[in-house]
Write a structure and sequence with these properties.
It is a single chain. This protein is an alpha+beta fold and 211 residues long. It has a single domain (4-210), classed as 3-Layer(aba) Sandwich (Pathogenesis-related Protein p14a), CATH 3.40.33. It contains 5 helices and 5 strands, in the order βαβααβααββ. The protein has helices spanning 85-101, 113-126, 131-134, 153-166, 179-184; strands at residues 11-14, 107-108, 143-150, 191-198, 204-210. It has a 5-stranded mixed sheet.
């Protein structure tokens, strides 16, 4: 289901990358690097047709270790709602890593979740990735993905993260955005913290910090 009518987007910032802007959209952040908006809701969170994430989720299929590239069109069914949005977001990221590319899980950065919530709140009034420099979480070498103005926490977890993963690896094309996938599939960062903030109007800002 398409969410373009809601003017949704995903934004990503990765430290140590040069600035990039796509879709004539926002220039995400003021410091070390940007991946601007992808109009991210086009693959909205129904979990796709297969619902299982393809063969990558089979332990036998992952016996040889991580795959060199993600399984095409991998759309795992969203993780069950546990009532803990931070845990569900963390689980969803690791779901993509395992089901779609046989990558080992990241650790849940529990101590970073409060800071990441603050990032989401700050950005909701100051702009996408404004918090990346203003309220840094963790070490200096880190990455940040962001889902601004989504309709619900569940849609951030199911649909925005799916759209980010769907970007796929860097392909050398300056007109495509891949930084969100690169953060999610990282072998550089070892942990992730998710943050959420609901605005007075009811829209949700979601931030994922990788450290």
């Amino acid at each position: 289901m398409a969410l373009l009518a809601l003017a949704l987007g995903c934004e990503g910032t990765i430290a140590d990358e040069p600035p990039r802007t796509l879709d004539g959209g926002t220039d995400a952040g003021t410091d070390a690097g940007t991946d601007a908006g992808t109009d991210a809701g086009t693959d909205a969170g129904t979990g796709g047709t297969g619902g299982t994430g393809g063969t990558g989720g089979d332990p036998g299929a992952c016996a040889g270790g991580p795959l060199a590239s993600p399984i095409p069109n991998c759309t795992p069914m969203p993780v069950p709602n546990t009532g803990d949005i931070h845990a569900d977001c963390f689980a969803r990221i690791n779901q993509f890593r395992w089901d779609c590319q046989c990558l080992p899980p990241l650790s849940r950065w529990l101590d970073g979740e409060s800071c990441t919530d603050s990032n989401a709140q700050y950005d909701s009034t100051n702009g996408v990735h404004a918090s990346f420099s203003a309220i840094p979480c963790g070490s200096g070498s880190r990455a940040q993905n962001e889902c601004p103005n989504w309709p619900s926490n569940a849609q951030v977890i199911s649909a925005c993260l799916q759209a980010m993963w769907d970007e796929g690896p860097e392909d050398g094309n300056p007109n495509t955005v891949n930084g969100h996938y690169e953060s999610m599939a990282t072998s550089t960062y070892t942990r992730v913290a998710c943050g959420f903030f609901t605005t007075p109007s009811g829209t949700v800002w979601g931030v994922q910090n990788f450290d």
